[in-house]
Specification:
five-stranded mixed sheet, 495 residues, 2 domains, 19 strands, eight-stranded mixed sheet
Length: 495
Amino acid sequence: MKAIMVMFDSLNRLMLPPYGCDWVHAPNFQRLAERSATFENSYVCSMPCMPARRDLHTGRPNFLHRSWGPLEPFDASVPRMLSEGGVSSHLVSDHQHYWEAGGATYHTQYSTWQFFRGQEGDVWMGQVADPPKPNAHGRNADNARWPHRQDLINRQFMRRLEDQPQYKTFAAGIDFIRRNSRDDDWFLQIETFDPHEPFFTQRMYQDLYRDRLVDRNGPLFDWPSYGTVRESDELVQQCRAHYAALVSMCDASLGNVLDEMDRLDLWDDTMLMVWTDHGFLLGEHDMWAKVHMPWYQEMAHTPFFVWDPRSGVQSERRTCLVQPSLDLGPTLLEFFGMERDEYMLGHALGDVVAGDQPVREAALFGHHGGQVNVTDGRYVYMRGPATETNAPLHNYTLMPTHMRSAFSPDELQNAEFVPGFSHMRECNVLRTEAGGRWPSQCQYGHLLFDLERDPNERSPLSDAAVEDRMINHLVKLMRACDAPDEQYVRLGLNP
């Protein structure tokens, strides 16, 4: 048996034909839906990028205990468990956060791995002289600072499709499949940073959207600033078109994987999983991007597809509530006949794919220090901090790094070693005060939405009975993942 995971970053489900989009050119995503189970209620858990990948390795939420950071010494790792159990695990990726301080322990869990440089201001090509200044808008115009200056430098070395990191990543993945297609017991993770911003791609994909990219001489705008939309309708349309062009490139790369599975007749013994860590706001709610605002459906409700050769289900929809970042690890372990780690909270999805068998009543999601959210598929409840101080809030870690740097001496001066939580395997851990690294979302308070009547989350609901029920779900899930006591205090909840 074999398994292939194709992972995208910042993929908005509403921009895909299987989820109702009628203007983005993505025929291979539609082709995938016809060959797999398409999930209607797939939700994120820990956000953003590396927290989601920690969920994937450990099969449990981590955003209540620490912010962005590496895998911890006490963490389980599904790729490592597979390798130790005789299943070769291979990662090919252009996701540049793996090379930073806060991601440096993830790729080492795989049997083998390959990386490709150049995404989102990756400190790749060394150039002392300033790059040419484009006529640009948004983050594209901020060419005096990293990473925007570095992005302009890197683009000079990506003139052809074959030069782009996404292309190289999928080419390496296809090469792995070809070389190992007649062998059993392997797991391949093909992971691209795209369609994460900046939405840089080649003219051949931009030309698919000539009606939306009308003014080729207008300002370059494929990298929006996080926060409120301040651009004209014409610029919003341009940015969305650049995103769509990059989605079309992702679609073509996905199609190459599907073609190879066809050519090598891999469908009989190879699981295929296609998902994303989170979505992206493209002007919806009059906002760009993520993190700075509530985790609306465009970011939290994600596309997800699974082909499982054991059941052979294809061209069917699944409505059960799932969380790929938590569930894919247990699914892979079950697929290869291995026992899950005792602290995993995710669920194997074999029965969900086969017969839409429910695995959870509700799903917990959020980012460290922000609103803590829960959905039962019908309602979404977003619980904000009780006070403007967003306190108390701590990091619990044995790997004191943020995204790109170690914890500062100021952060460590009042740190203390404390007993860890149950899943930390009796380790004492470092506890530090956390604050200011991510927006607290205090200004949004508590929000309740009825997705059946208000799928676009435009009108918060006031219903005490529903809110109480969702709070019960929230507290139950927080208890299940052994949330720190102060999280209940921060949110104004009774544990």
